[in-house]
Write a structure and sequence with these properties.
Blueprint (H helix, E strand, L loop, with lengths): L2 E3 L7 H10 L4 E4 L6 E2 L13 E8 L4 H4 L10 E6 L10 H8 L6 E4 L7 H11 L6 E6 L21 E6 L9 H10 L2 E3 L7 E8 L5 E10 L3 E10 L2 E12 L5 E11 L3 E16 L5 E9 L2 E11 L7
Parallel strand pairs: 1-2, 2-4, 3-4, 4-5, 5-6, 6-7, 7-8
Antiparallel strand pairs: 8-9, 10-11, 10-17, 11-12, 12-13, 13-14, 14-15, 15-16, 16-17
């Protein structure tokens, strides 16, 4: 994907049209503009919102007036989000939350004016990450050192959802690009990793045809690029077990795939057969359940599978 980095928004429809003519097949990242865009300014680029992969936005209260201008931009991968007030009190945020939950391809959200999670940023992160098949990267500025005689007894706010939180130095200039974010991940201390137990699930999957069953003993969403799965099942050849890692593939809108995993039948010993697993959907819904859809391929036959998995009460190993 060809993404053009823009440090400012061209003024006027004529300049925007020239930009589109110059890069007809490109996408645009506006997350690193020198000046954030107010919600009302987004209307100027609403007509090509599907080509915008990054935004730097300054909102007032995120009410319906602000939110109605955000809807053309749901294909974002990078989002820099600021507010005119330090303490945002939202009375009617349903439209804003719906927009957040529809940005399903978001990789990173950055709060340049916030030092740590507040009740409102927690709400934003949860809305952005609740249905994601991979953890959302969340970036804050590092907290200022307290004065020697300062007694800060404020409890930290728990941030739910499928996310990883980083804090960067207040002197560091943060750019939201693939390379820069990877540097932050490698250099900065992970402040709040995704709790492992939150992303470990088990349950049964329904098979579209065939007289057999599949019991997911453990499915773990791990980092960006894999799902670790351990299953037991029963088909015409008897009871079997299979486990392995399904790696993320960006093709076809994205899916997890494992090729030729050993299928061990209890009556035949190890390596009796092999299967491939393709998971098109691995999403955590607002109830904390994991929705799974995909296919099981074995002996040149394919069976579609789907089901709802539930969080394990304790961590299970493969």
């Amino acid at each position: 994907m060809d993404i053009q980095e823009l440090n400012h928004l061209p003024e006027g429809n004529t300049n925007i049209e020239k930009l589109l003519e110059q890069y007809p097949t490109s996408y645009f990242n506006l997350a690193n503009t020198t000046k954030p865009l107010m919600a009302c300014e987004l209307s100027d680029i609403a007509d090509f919102g599907d080509k915008i992969k990054g935004l730097n936005i300054l909102l007032d209260t995120a009410d319906d007036y602000d939110s109605e201008n955000l809807w053309p931009f749901t294909d974002l991968e990078y989002l820099k989000l600021s507010f005119t007030e330090n303490d945002v009190c939202i009375e009617n945020f349903s439209n804003f939350q719906n927009w957040l939950m529809n940005i399903t391809s978001l990789k990173v959200v950055y709060f340049p004016e916030v030092e740590e999670s507040t009740e409102f940023t927690s709400f934003i992160i949860h809305s952005l990450s609740t249905n994601k098949p991979y953890p959302l990267i969340v970036i804050y500025k590092a907290k200022r050192k307290p004065h020697k005689h300062s007694n800060d007894n404020t409890d930290s706010v728990y941030v739910p959802g499928n996310r990883k939180i980083y804090q960067v130095s207040k002197r560091k200039e943060v750019e939201l690009t693939q390379e820069s974010v990877q540097e932050i991940i490698e250099e900065q201390k992970l402040k709040s990793p995704v709790p492992h137990k939150e992303l470990t699930f088990s349950g049964f999957l329904e098979i579209d045809s065939g007289d057999w069953q599949l019991d997911i003993k453990s499915l773990v969403i791990e980092q960006y690029n894999e799902v670790i799965i351990s299953v037991e099942g029963k088909d015409d050849d008897g009871m079997f077990k299979c486990s392995g890692r399904c790696n993320w593939n960006d093709a076809e809108g994205g899916f997890y795939f494992a090729s030729r995993l050993p299928v061990e039948y209890f009556d035949y010993g190890p390596d009796a057969d092999y299967a491939s697993i393709k998971l098109n959907v691995v999403e955590i819904n607002e109830l904390g359940e994991c929705i799974v859809k995909g296919a099981w391929v074995q002996n040149s036959e394919q069976w579609l599978l789907e089901g709802t998995l539930f969080k394990n009460k304790s961590k299970q190993s493969l």
